[in-house]
């Protein structure tokens, strides 16, 4: 996508809300670029560093602990990004307009003029097709095993009763003094770890997630000098939003 929309060579990649930073380490290795991985979780960044060392790219990567909705983090990105990305729907954590605008503003500041920002968001049909209202559609579960097979983690994604408020757009709830922001899907996430057949630990959390429309993304980008140049339904550029295999919104914005 960078080659498709940008004239300059990609020398530096920025992954925001990186989690384990697998995308950053993969691109650093494949493109011979340097990379900055930013996340607000110290534990996740520590894990990301371990993975980068195992991949042999730790020397090409820099790790920054920061909240993507906070002002000023772009000053800690030492090299302007030719390509930046917020993937796996992580933009959903910008729950109100102030947080979203701050995130976009810092992303723009951290990028080189002519650089590309790639956002991975839910497909518009999730919102406009009523998918968010169908509670059973959000109940998923899967497991993963440790390398030695001694531990299994069961992941629960969504529960019956998870709430999505249609009456107001995200952020307005704060302005009206609501306890929680309206226009946000409240997704229940559970992690249960088993040692053999015995339950070793279990954690459950309700995670609020804002559902962005493409019009909102376009407007946020315009406010900070980013222009939408293409939207795909997958990371395969041949898959458009209306393609039968489309399941994401992959939005490309170029910095002016």
Automatic annotation (TrEMBL):
A matching Pfam family: Methyltransf_25
Domain Methyltransferase: 14-115
GO BP terms: methylation
Superkingdom of this protein's organism: Eukaryota
Single annotated GO MF: methyltransferase activity
SUPFAM superfamilies: S-adenosyl-L-methionine-dependent methyltransferases
Keywords: Methyltransferase, Transferase
Gene3D superfamilies with a match to the protein in the record: Vaccinia Virus protein VP39 (3.40.50.150)
Protein's recorded name: Methyltransferase domain-containing protein
């Amino acid at each position: 996508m960078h080659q498709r929309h940008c004239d300059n060579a990609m020398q530096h990649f920025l992954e925001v809300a990186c989690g384990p930073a697998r995308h950053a380490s993969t691109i650093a290795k494949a493109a011979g670029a340097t990379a900055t991985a930013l996340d607000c979780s110290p534990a996740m960044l520590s894990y990301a560093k371990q993975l980068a060392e195992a991949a042999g790219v730790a020397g090409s990567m820099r790790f920054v602990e920061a909240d993507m909705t906070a002002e000023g983090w772009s000053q800690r990105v030492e090299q302007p990004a030719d390509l930046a990305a917020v993937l796996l729907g992580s933009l959903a954590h910008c729950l109100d307009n102030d947080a979203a605008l701050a995130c976009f503003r810092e992303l723009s500041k951290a990028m080189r003029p002519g650089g590309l920002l790639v956002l991975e968001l839910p497909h518009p049909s999730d919102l406009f097709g009523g998918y968010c209202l169908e509670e059973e559609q959000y109940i998923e579960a899967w497991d993963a095993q440790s390398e030695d097979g001694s531990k299994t983690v069961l992941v629960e994604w969504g529960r019956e009763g998870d709430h999505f408020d249609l009456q107001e757009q995200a952020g307005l709830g704060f302005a009206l003094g609501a306890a929680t922001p309206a226009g946000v899907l409240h997704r229940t996430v559970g992690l249960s770890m088993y040692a053999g057949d015995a339950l070793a630990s279990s954690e459950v959390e309700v995670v609020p997630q804002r559902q962005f429309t493409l019009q909102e993304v376009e407007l946020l980008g315009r406010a900070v000098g980013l222009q939408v140049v293409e939207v795909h339904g997958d990371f395969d550029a041949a898959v458009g939003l209306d393609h039968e295999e489309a399941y994401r919104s992959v939005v490309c914005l170029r910095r002016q």
